[in-house]
């Protein structure tokens, strides 16, 4: 991650003219001094985007978040409104997580070449009881329901922000949230200690 962080703060420009790209912490391009720096946005949103990718099922959440920031950096010059960066990052992370989970389904269907006892220490550390329970509960929901719940209850996004992130109508967000909560309650009611 250090190499990526250094790359984020690397000066970019042609012939000494900056094109809206920040050079380092706190330094901004002359044409938009009030806009946030890329470095500051990275520090503010990287943890959130990593957690979002993890909750959406990406097995390499940190890589997904880093790739989202790479895509943001590549589009930095073309962004007219830097206040919408968080929405762009969330949408990118959601789409990349979808791709990763689709890929994981294919990979998991193929026979494993190594026995389960040879899993890395990192995988064993992540696979604790709470993590597995959360993933199991979320896995019982449809992809759309899982995405809406994570965006609503973990990121605390409004209905309008979720609709924008997923590219659906606010009414669909409300209906999906309702159905997801019903399914979640039904699933938790079947687990030991799930009924109250």
Automatic annotation (TrEMBL):
- Pinpoint the RNA polymerase sigma-70 region domain residues: 41-102
SUPFAM superfamilies to which the protein is assigned, alphabetical: Sigma2 domain of RNA polymerase sigma factors (SSF88946), Sigma3 and sigma4 domains of RNA polymerase sigma factors (SSF88659)
Q: Does the keyword DNA-binding apply?
A: yes
Entry-linked InterPro entries = RNA_pol_sigma-70-like, RNA_pol_sigma-70_dom, RNA_pol_sigma-E_actinobac, RNA_pol_sigma70_r2, RNA_pol_sigma70_r4_t2, RNA_pol_sigma_r2, RNA_pol_sigma_r3/r4-like, WH-like_DNA-bd_sf
The family database entries (Pfam families) matched by this protein are listed as:
Sigma70_r2 (PF04542), Sigma70_r4_2 (PF08281)
Key word Transcription present in the record? yes
Keywords assigned = DNA-binding, Sigma factor, Transcription, Transcription regulation
What family is it from?
Belongs to the sigma-70 factor family. ECF subfamily.
Protein name per its UniProtKB record? RNA polymerase sigma-70 factor, sigma-E family
The scientific name of the source species is: Amycolatopsis australiensis
């Amino acid at each position: 991650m250090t190499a990526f962080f250094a790359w984020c703060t690397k000066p970019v420009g042609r012939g000494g003219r900056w094109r809206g790209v920040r050079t380092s912490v706190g330094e901004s391009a002359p044409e938009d001094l009030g806009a946030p720096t890329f470095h500051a946005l990275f520090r503010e949103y990287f943890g959130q985007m990593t957690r979002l990718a993890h909750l959406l099922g990406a097995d390499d959440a940190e890589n997904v978040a880093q790739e989202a920031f790479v895509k943001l950096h590549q589009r930095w010059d073309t962004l007219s409104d830097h206040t919408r960066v968080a929405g762009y990052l969330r949408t990118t992370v959601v789409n990349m997580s979808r791709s990763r989970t689709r890929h994981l389904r294919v990979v998991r269907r193929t026979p494993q070449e190594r026995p389960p006892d040879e899993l890395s220490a990192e995988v064993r550390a992540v696979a604790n009881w709470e993590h597995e329970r959360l993933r199991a509960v979320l896995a019982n929901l449809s992809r759309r329901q899982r995405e809406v719940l994570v965006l609503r209850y973990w990121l605390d996004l409004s209905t309008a922000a979720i609709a924008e992130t997923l590219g659906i109508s606010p009414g669909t967000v409300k209906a999906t949230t309702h159905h997801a909560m019903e399914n979640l309650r039904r699933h938790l009611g079947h687990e030991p200690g799930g009924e109250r």
